[in-house]
Amino acid sequence: MNVVVGISGGIAAYKAVNVVRALVLEGHDVHVIATDAALRFVGKPTLEAISRNPVNSDLYEGVAQVRHVSIGQAADLIIIAPATANTLAKLAHGLADDLLGNTVLASTAPVVVAPAMHTEMWGNQATRANVALLRSRGITIVGPASGRLTGEDVGAGRMSEPDDIVRAALAVVGGAGPDDAAAPAPASGSAAPDSADPGSADPGSGDLAGLRVLISAGGTREPLDPVRFLGNRSSGRQGVALAAAALERGASVTLLAAHLEVPVPEGVSVVHVQTAAELEEAARVHAQRADLVIMAAAVADYRPAAVAEQKIKKETAGDRVTLELVRNPDILAGLAVERRDGQVVVGFAAETAADEDELVRVGRAKLERKGCDYLVLNRVGWSLGFAAEDNAVVVVQRGGDIVMEASGSKATVAHRILDAVHPALLPRA
Ligand code: CTP
User: Nearest-CA neighbor of 82 among 51, 122, 52, 132?
Assistant: First the structure.
């Protein structure tokens, strides 16, 4: 397979040598594009010796061969490691002021990016937005991991290990071996398959590595009798997509699963619940150890005042039945009150609002009432939301500011939600 390895200018550039080496050892034809800044950190002769090909860096060299497009056109896979904050920004905005930028724009190959930078730069809103944009275009982000950075600093931002980057990148092209040049691969402009995301290759790395995430999903069911219940139309898709996304990003994930219509990804630990009361009990227990709690479940606000021991029969119930319902506790509000220092609590609100203005107005008031850190708002209706594959959300934070708006597949939206709440988690990441 023809693999282009782009190296940008960060100290982790020295580790990129091992990315190149691992690919060569697997039999791939590796072409390195190093930015000028990268060559300040690692020498061209080293990269040429290891890649066994000339190293490209100058946009104006070999112009007769139209290299600014030919390298990208020939590539089956592009890996950029390390990707600095600057490179991420350039990729996100399609800048082409160097050979790497041109190559990415001229290519339809999948792009895998391994960011490396200081924690503050990784957590900066500009970087978060750029990463979210890249993800939404199907570009795979591997890591970064948490650990020792340059100097004495420790935190999120360390480039993932070379072997992990190579493993994740090859997974994107379907585990292509050296002879699988034409292996089917998603183009960088289309959404990569969920399973190809980096964290699934290594749950120990990613920007949520080391964090415990608790997510509730699906619709609760409140029994009326042994065979009937009061339920709702939640499919659990968005909550399960959040669990998958958090897992991919390195978190250890517990899912409190009310009624779901979709399977739970392997690696997520699942606690099955039925009613709001069971969910409350499980949430209380598991929230104690969680760094991030996301209540995506559609919880019944009311339950039948009495549950019939036997099936309710028409002969005894008659022509008209009146159900008496009692209020369920507000689990989210309870978790927000009891949250420990530094824990981030996120709620959802599905509203039948006429438009986005009304949605945000209702959402702000609900956020205030619930006392959580963020509220994810979406519009629902008879033909909107629920079982749909796609979703459109607005995220408001405490104080009422809108911090993110996103639409797309529930997997894309899940990553955007995690991007939006990530800054609040950063000090412990
Ligand atoms: N929620 C909860 N416990 C409940 C009801 C809801 O924890 N008894 C959580 C949901 O998981 C969600 C958020 O609260 O994260 C908002 O749910 P929603 O049903 O929109 O809120 P309600 O308080 O029920 O408001 P409304 O009166 O508009 O239904």
Answer: 122
